[in-house]
Amino acid sequence: MSTIESPRPAVILREAAKPRPRWQVILVRPETVTFLLLIIATIVATRLSPFFADLGFILESSTYYVEFAIVALVLTIVIISGEIDLSPAAQMALSACLFGTAYRAGAPIPVAILVSLVSGLAMGAFNAFFITVLRLPSIIVTIGTLILYRGLAQVLAGDKSIGSFPGWFVGIDYRMIGIVPVPVMIFIIASVLLGLFLGITILGRQIYQIGTSEVAAIHAGIRVRRIKFGLFLASGLTSSIAGLLTASRLGSVRYDLASGGELTMVLIVMLGGTYIFGGRGSILGTFLAAWLLVIIATGMTVANIAINAQLTVMGLLLIVSIIATNAIYARSQR
Amino acid sequence: MLRKKLMLAAVLGASLFAGAAYAADPVSIVYIPKNTGNPYFDSIIKGFEDGCKTLGCEFTTVAPASAEATSQIPFLTAQIQRGVNVVAISPNSPDALNQVFDRARSKGTIILSVNSDMPGNEDHRDAAILPVDFTKTGPSQVELLGKQIGYEGEIAILSATTDAPDQNVWIAAMKDTLEKDPKYAKMKLVTIAYGDDDPQKSTTETEALLANYPNLKGIISPTTVGVAAAAQVVETAKKADKIKVVGLGTPNQMRRFIENGTVEAFQLWSPYNEGLLAAHFAVGVKNGTIKNEPGTTFEVPGLGKVTVGEKSVIKTQADLTTFDKKNIADFNF
C-alpha cells in the first residue's frame, strides 16, 4: 500500500538560535573570570609590596594552601556530580591523628602511613554508605561526619600534639623538584591527571551527566550510585594524603589540624567557577582558583595588610565569582 | 651556644659586607600576637612602640584572625620575606611553628618568644621573654580564690585554647597546688572549660559551668578574655555573692566589675613592660651590645637590671600584681 504517499509533514521549524560564535564558547566561561582575577591579583600584589614578586617565596607560601587545594580538586568532581563533601578537613585531621597515634604506639612510619590511608578510605566509605545506600543528602551527612571525625580525632589525640617524627618524614614542603616544593608538584600533577580524567574519559563525562540530571543518567544506564561511592572514597583517600602532607610540613599533628579547611576548599572550588548545583565546572578552574587564593593571601600578608581587610576581600571575591559563574551559565545554556 | 654566636657573627659580617648604605639601617622588629582584637596584646604592642621610639628601631605588628595553632605561619613567612631582623611572637602552639622558626633563623632572623615559651622546643627560638616568674602564677591564683571562698568548695577553671602552652603550664601548677598543699584540701576542681579566648565561647562555657555545677564556689580564668566573660556572666546571673571569679585580667577590662563588686580581686603583670623589655633586648642582641646567653645582665630604663636566665629565658617581673578596689585606679592598660 505504498500508493498513498504519506504527505511529508510540514516541518514547523522554530527559528533556531544561531550557534554562538566559537570565540564566545572558548572565552566566555567562568575559568576566564578566574584567570582574569588571577592576573589582576598578581599585578595588584606586585604593586602592594616590593617583597612579593619572588617566585621562591610565592611557592613557599603556596605550601600552606596547597594541601587544601589538592582536596579541592577531588571536591570539584564531587560537586560536579551534584553532591558535596564538607568533611575532608576533618578527615585530614583524623587520618593524621591516626598516623601520629600509630607512630607513637611504635609502628614504623610506612605502616603508620598505611593506617592513615586506609582510614581515609574507610571514612570516605562511611560517608558514601549514607549517601548512596541510605540516600541521605550529602550536605547533611558530611556536616555530621565533619563533626564526628573531628571529635574522634580529639578523643584519639587529646589536647596534646603528637610529634617527634623522624627527620626524613618531616618537612616535605622543603623538598624541592627544581624550584617547586613537592606538595605543589603533587598538586600540579594531580590537576593534570584529574583534568584529563574529567575531560576526556567516558567516566568523566558520565560524572557531568549525573550532575546535570541524575534521572537521565540512570536511564542512560550510568551506574550512578557506584560512581558516587567511588568519588567519596577518592575524597577520603585524598584527604588522608593531604593530612599526611600537613603532618610532614608541621612536624606534628593535633586534632585541630586543618580546622576550618572545608571552607577554604569550597571557596577554591567556587572561585574556580564550578556550579554548586552540579553538572558544570572544571579542574582547570579549581587549579587557577587555588593560585588566585595563594596570590591574594600571600600578597596581602606580605604587604602587612590587616587580617580583617584580607577576609573582606576574600568574601567580596567569592560573591563576585559566584555572580559571574551564574551569569555565564545562565547565558550559555539553560 | 657557639652556633648562635657564629650565626650572629655571620649576620654582622654580612651587614658589614653589604656596605655603608646598610650600616645605618635601623633594626626592624615585627611582633606577631596570638590573634587580633585582644587588648592584652595591645599593651605589649604599646611597650614595643615606646621602646622603639627611644631606641630608634622600626616596629610593625601583624596578627592572624584566629588563635588556631597554625594560623601564624603565613605571617611569619611573609615577615622573613620582608627581611625583618627580629620576629617577636606569642606562639599559638608549642611545636607547630618549629619548622618555620628554624628556617627563619637559618636566614639570620632572631626569633623571640614573647609572653609564653615553647616548652620542650626551646632550641627553635633564640630567647623567651616572659612577663613574670610563671612558676608562681598557678599557686598565686589558687591562693587568691581560696582566700575569697574560705578555702572550701567546688571550683572550675576557664582557660583559653586547649593547646595554649602558658595556660596548660599554669593549670598544671594549679592542680599540683590543690593536690599537694593541705591548706587547699577542701577545694575541689570539678572541671576545666575552654573558651578559646573568644568572648562568645567563653560566655557560653561559663553559663554551662553555672548550669552544670550548682554548688560552684569559684572560677579561675587565667586569661584576659575568659575572666572578663566569666565576670559578665556572674554579674548577669546576679550570683556575685555565691560565685567568686578570679583570674588574669587587664585593669581596663575589669575596672567595672571591681567597682561594682562582682569581682573582688584579680591579678596580672604589666604586658607593657614585656614589650618594652623585648624591644631593648632585640636591639641589643642585633647590634651586639647584649650577649644572648644565660647570666648576661642589661639595663632597661624604667625596669632596672634584667638578667638572662637558663635557656635564654627572661622574666620581666618577679611576682604577680594583684588588682583590687584599692589600687585599680592607678593602672590604665
Overall description:
Chain A: It is found in: Cell membrane. Chain A: The chain crosses the membrane at residues 32-52, 64-82, 111-131, 138-157, 177-203, 229-251, 257-277, 284-307, 313-330. Chain A: Keywords: Cell inner membrane, Cell membrane, Membrane, Transmembrane, Transmembrane helix, Transport. Chain A: The complex is composed of two ATP-binding proteins (LsrA), two transmembrane proteins (LsrC and LsrD) and a solute-binding protein (LsrB). Chain A: It comes from Kaistia dalseonensis. The complex is a heterodimer of chains A (334) and B (333). Chain A has 334 residues and is mainly α. Chain A has a single domain, classed as ABC transporter involved in vitamin B12 uptake, BtuC. Chain A is built from 13 helices and two strands, in the order ααααααββααααααα. Chain A has helices spanning 22-27, 30-48, 55-80, 88-104, 109-133, 138-157, 182-200, 202-212, 214-219, 224-250, 261-271, 283-302, 307-332, and strands at 176-177, 180-181. Chain A has a two-stranded antiparallel ribbon. In chain A, β1 (176-177) and β2 (180-181) form a beta hairpin. In chain A, α3 runs antiparallel to α10 (224-250), α5 (109-133) runs antiparallel to α6 (138-157) and α5 runs antiparallel to α10. The longest helix of chain A is centred in the last third of the chain and has 27 residues, at 224-250. The two termini of chain A are 45 Å apart. The mean pLDDT of chain A is 91. Chain B has 333 residues and is α/β, with parallel strands linked by helices. Chain B has two domains: 2-132 and 270-317, Rossmann fold (3-Layer(aba) Sandwich), CATH 3.40.50; 135-268 and 323-330, 3-Layer(aba) Sandwich (Rossmann fold), CATH 3.40.50. Chain B is 41% helix and 21% strand. Chain B contains eleven helices and 14 strands. In chain B, strands 2-1-3-4-5-13 form a six-stranded parallel beta sheet, sandwiched between helices. In chain B, strands 7-6-8-9 form a four-stranded parallel beta sheet. Chain B has a two-stranded antiparallel ribbon with strand order 10-14. In chain B, α9 (224-236) links the parallel β8 and β9. In chain B, α3 (39-55) packs across α11. The interface between A and B is medium-sized, with 32 and 28 residues.
